[in-house]
Amino acid sequence: MNKKQSKTVKRSTLVWSILVALVVGGALAYGVAYFQTRTLVSQAQTTTASMQKIQAVYETIEGNYYKSVSAKKVTNGAIKGMISSLDDPFSEYMDKTEASSLNDQISSSFSGIGAEVQKSDQYIKIISPIKGTPAKKVGLQPGDLITAVNGKSLAGKSVTDAVKLMRGKIGTKVTLTIKRAGKSFKQTLTRAKIPVSTVNSKVINKKIGYIQITSVSERTAAELKKALKRLDKKGVTSYVLDVRDNPGGLMDQALKMSSMFLKNGKIIMRVQTKNGQQQVYKAGKKYDGGYKVTKPVAVLMNGGSASAAEIFAGALHQSADAPLIGTQSYGKGTVQTVSDFKDKSEMKITIAKWLTPNGDWINKKGLTPTYKADYPKYAYLQLINTKKTYKNGDVSSEIKTLQKELKALGYFNGKVNGYFGSSTENAVQAYQKKENLKVTGTANEKTVLSIETKVQSKVAKNDNALKKAESILDK
Fold first, then answer.
1. Taking a C-beta distance cutoff of 8 angstroms, is the pair 11, 33 a contact?
2. What is the pLDDT of residue 94?
3. Which among 33, 25, 17, 14 is positioned nearest to 269, based on CA atoms?
4. CA end-to-end span of the chain, whole Å?
5. pTM > 0.90
6. Which candidate, 31, 103, 108, 18, places its Cα nearest to that of 308?
């Protein structure tokens, strides 16, 4: 195998997680990719009749259609149609522009809103907003449906088409139409460069090291090791590893991260092809470089924890007895390969499953927490439309949300009914006075944004999952 061939094989063994790629390392990079190529060649020899039919359709269109057609357009349509028939949100054909767009995201050299998404029926669903990005700052949540971008409906559009609409130059604005809990609203975001740093850390409760891992990218394992060493020097006695809303990322990094917390020889994960053959990945020096963590750990997860984050959480739970705290994880348990074409377009298709150390396939099920704990209910309130001013006599669902937020902050004790009456007006006035805002009794944009910021701050202070982890590690 020459260098060019080697590079091609390595490039074709990407495991994709939502929009971020997972790179399959080691034996799998060559074994599965090579096995899959041989299988496809063998299958092609037995599908001559089908290929002849496709060729006949193509020639008929080219020769008899009543007006000129683009051969490239027809070819791309045929490929997309075949892949679409798989009914798999993780298999997709991408033209040159689409492939370039996603490859930019892999290298984090892109600007946008900062949310991992996937196809959901006719629209696009947010899997996880990334910390520090516009999507996170405005309060977009896992499960939100994006139905339109700048007024253009996303009905029937692919993930890549939707992403192209949401991306753009840093500093430009994009308006999303969001559907949450059956209700729709618009949210305008300012595009920004998505942060490269994926690990944040601090000391909590005087002796516990808290590490938040926001995604799993090229330097996450190195960043994690650096954070662990820094916290260790501060004398921490245990660690909380927070992968909530972590959409996944590079699989080789997940292997390196997991290996740090597992004894050598312990299973990190398994990859199973359609014939049942498994590749088993075990902790060892080739992944962690000999660096091991022996102090107690607890892992926080939720419905936004997907793919590589689930590999990490599952490995620590099943091979190192680390408790999982939070809510059910997302459940993305498939492996994809990517093939490059000469015109720089790409095709990715699912070719295997990944399993936990115990052999569990968590696809569409997720990991079950050892201890269930979540943020308070007001953490999931719908965003209020800030383009309106709410006043006495108004009735709307936004006012109902406003009442819930004011109740959470201790300003409203009336009935939550969506009617802006005297009790709501008094609550707004009390809040404005307390926060040194102009006291009007009406909820304008400045007041609403201030209230929502305070609610988010209270959510952070009432992190029930983190509190549970502290109580376990503090024993």
1. no
2. 85
3. 25
4. 56
5. no
6. 18
